[in-house]
Amino acid sequence: MSRPTLELLVQRHGNELWLNAPDVGLFTDAQPPDGLLSPGDAAGVLMILGRAHDLLVPAQVQGRIQGPRSELVQQPVDYGTRVYCLSLLEDELSGTESNDSPNMAVNEKALVLKSPQTGRFYHRASPTDEPFISPGDNIDPGQAIGMIEVMKTFTTVAFSPDAEWPNRLRLKAWLAQDGAEVTQGEALIELEGD
Amino acid sequence: MFRRLFIANRGEVAVRVARAARSLGISPVCAVSQSDRETPWASAMDEVVCLGPGNPELSYLRVEATVQAALQTGCAALHPGWGFLAENARFAALCQQHGLTFIGPSPSLIDSMGLKWPSKQAARRAGLTLIPGSEGLLRDVDEAVEVAARIGYPVMIKADAGGGGRGMRHCSNEKELRAGYAQASAEAMGAFGNGDLFLEKCLQNGRHIEVQILGDRWGKVLHLYERECSIQRKHQKLIEESPSPALDHEQREELGTAAAQAAAALGYVGAGTIEFLMDAESGDLHFMEMNTRLQVEHGISECITGVDIVREQIRVAAGEKLEQTQEEITVSGHAIECRINAEDPTQNFQPTPGDLTRFQIPRDLGPGSLRVDTHVQEGDTIPPHYDSLMAKLIAHGKDRAEALETMRRALDGLVVEGVTSTTPLHQAVLASGEFQSGAYNTGSIPGWTPQEVS
Q1: Assign residue B267 a region: left if phi > 0, alpha if psi is -120 to 50, beta otherwise?
Q2: Residues A48, B190: C-beta atoms closer than 8 Å
Q3: DSSP class per residue in B371-434
Q4: How many helices (H) and strands (E) are present in chain A, helices listed first?
Q5: Using a CB-CB distance cutoff of 8 angstroms, which residues of chain B are in contact with residue A23?
Q6: Domains of chain A by residue range
Q7: Judging by DSSP bridges, how do beta strands A180-182 and A119-122 pair with one another?
Q8: Which of residues 19-48 of B touch A (CB under 8 A)?
Q9: Cα–Cα distance between B304 and B329 in angstroms, integer?
């Protein structure tokens, strides 16, 4: 039986990449300074309630470990505590830049419905229900397309198209996933006309 | 006594628990989410441990991470506050297994009070009156019809494992009951994996009256009299007062004694609340449920009795004895609490997270005293992840009239800008004849015309 694993969190900081603890626990077996870390490498262990979890280097992260090694054995860390600082290799600098914006690129002319509020967006009325709409469905003005949860209160998101949009519209794609945290004005769905 | 206490909660209750801890010389350590990390209330703790992102499921509701955080910060005890993990028996058990004192009753007591029917059975064994209804869980729909015919319609069918209104049906006649039974059972099965139902007479326009309990490990149980919580919207309390205007001196003593005896029969340790529904017609008080934790509205009981409930919770968890006797606990004056929420009462109580550009509470307008329990300050952002409570105004006067006048002045002087608050609702309720006379119930909010926009 293999040990449970957790992926380190990545934070870009100038020319450095920080690898942060993904959970609360005791960090131990740190990799020594000047070593290289590559995607999939085990880079230490996090003990959570006595159980060891291997910490893995996430995809697209590569670099040389900088700075002094932690003096502590079983160092207490919380969610987001920096455990490694990597100096990026020159050729990676350009590559990682484009990963900064996680949002899917939506072209300017796309028909998107934006979130009326900041909160959590759901595709369905309850976990056991079908989604309100599916890609390919026709959507009429006023129709429910999802729910937003703000402070434990659920509000239906009704479809209100812009005046200049075509009359008949279909759901092209979900831009905010089921259960995603969205901010006001963030694109929720993309539509297409005939 | 503990040296360090872990607070597994956030916001207002975290601040309240930290204050009690410091008064006992205990250092407060608090769980935070990423979005709470930089808040003024979090910086007032001795140490914080970040459990995860703002979404509570990824932070404040994480059982293992919370216990690990308390252990690695050297805490000997954990206070769960209210909400989140406060009534999670498995969490309480996990704390104990790892040598952390859980500040609350035993896991098995939390568990039995969490299920509706076992808690009612326990309450009946302990001598409390139940709402008329079925003698246990229903075998089938025919038994439900039989019981309903005996006690009279309207009735409520409720799920044993129920919560949040699921598995619950209001039935005015046999036809509705036959239709509702199968639906409620299926709904409860789907939501909780347990389709068991029971049936109760539907008591309309009752009053919600609850008794504050404190028990120690040495078998002593005290009551701190009752709180009247009938001003509610969708089972969310808005205004509470103590003592209740619906009880006279004799009824008050009788109810408090009955609740304390019931809690003693359960072997209750810590702070708890027994909730009763007062029948509008008979005036009888029926057991509804027991909450095995600190309640939001505990402050009004503290005002009228002078007992620091949170401090006592921590003390009894450490094995110390409750020092006072029941005779020493007396009602002094009257207290009322208004919850100032970031909600728009004119727009169906829509939450209004955002930037709190102005937030000023005048505390010296008299004639009584004003206590303010809050974790927010001017310039804060009210995040969308959590409940909408911003502050609790607690007015204490020598009698009910003085408490009301103190609250009226505080509400008139309150400045909240940037987010919409429930202040106008409180002003309207306090101005209503029903509230002033004390003749109100859970059926409606006096002085406030519902403008429910769907």
Answers
A1: left
A2: no
A3: EEEES--TT-EE-SSS--EEEEEEEEESSHHHHHHHHHHHHHH-EEESS--SHHHHHHHHHSHH
A4: 1, 18
A5: 52, 65
A6: 5-97, 111-193
A7: antiparallel
A8: 34
A9: 9
Using alpha carbons, list the distances in angstroms from residue B226 to B74, B275, B318.
37, 9, 26
Counting one residue from chain A and one from chain B, the pairs whose CB atoms sit within 8 A come to 63
Residues facing B355 on adjacent strands? B381
Q: Is residue B390 within 8 Å of B417, Cβ to Cβ?
A: no
Q: Which residues contact B148 (CB under 8 A, 6 or more apart)?
A: B155, B171, B174, B177, B199
Q: Check if A79 contacts B (Cβ < 8 Å).
A: yes
Question: Is any Cβ of chain B less than 8 angstroms from the Cβ of A127?
Answer: no
Which residue range forms the structural domain that includes residue B66?
A: 4-103
- Assembly ipTM: 0.82
DSSP per-residue string spanning B246-280: T--HHHHHHHHHHHHHHHHHHT--EEEEEEEEE-T
Q: Is B63 on the interface with A (CB under 8 A)?
A: no
Cβ proximity of B183 and B167 under 8 Å: no
Q: Contact B223/B257 with Cβ under 8 angstroms?
A: yes
* B214 and B197 in a common domain: no
Q: What is the pTM of this model?
A: 0.84
Question: Which of 234-263 (B) contact A at CB < 8 A?
Answer: none
- CATH topology for A111-193 is OB fold (Dihydrolipoamide Acetyltransferase, E2P) (2.40.50)
- Of chain B, the percentage scoring pLDDT greater than 70 comes to 98
A5-97: CATH class: mainly beta
Q: Does B174 lie in the same domain as B213? A: no
Residues B160 and B302 grouped into a single domain: no
The CATH number of the domain where B316 resides is what? 3.30.470.20
B33: nearest CA partner in chain A: A79
Whether omega for the bond prior to residue B243 falls within 30 degrees of 0, making it cis, is: yes
- CA–CA distance, B2 with B21 (Å, rounded to integer): 9
Q: Which of B62, B252, B293, B339 is catalytic?
A: B293
Contact at CB, B384 and A26, closer than 8 angstroms? no
Between strands A75-77 and A180-182, the pairing is unpaired
B165 at interface of A, judged by CB pairs closer than 8 A: no
CB proximity B198 to A under 8 Å: no
d(CA B267, CA B250): 26
| Segment among A163-167, B79-83, B378-382 with least mean pLDDT | A163-167
User: What value does the mean pLDDT take over residues B360-375?
Assistant: 93
Task: For an interface test with A, give the residue of B68, B91, B376 to mutate (most A CBs within 10 A).
Answer: B68
Q: Is A109 on the interface with B (CB under 8 A)?
A: no
Catalytic status, residue B293: yes
Q: Are residues B279 and B303 in the same domain?
A: yes
Residues A40-85: pLDDT tens digits?
999 999 999 999 999 999 988 888 898 777 666 789 999 999 999 9
Query: Kind of pairing, strands B77-79 and B101-102?
Result: parallel
Tell me the chain A residues in contact with residue B98 when contact means C-beta distances shorter than 8 Å.
49
B384 → closest Cβ in A26, A128, A150 = A150
Q: Taking 50 as the threshold, does the pLDDT of residue B401 lie above it?
A: yes
- Token pair belonging to A126: 């309850």
**Is the CB of residue A121 less than 8 Å from the CB of residue A148?**
yes
User: In chain B, what residues touch A21 (CB-CB under 8 Å)?
Assistant: none
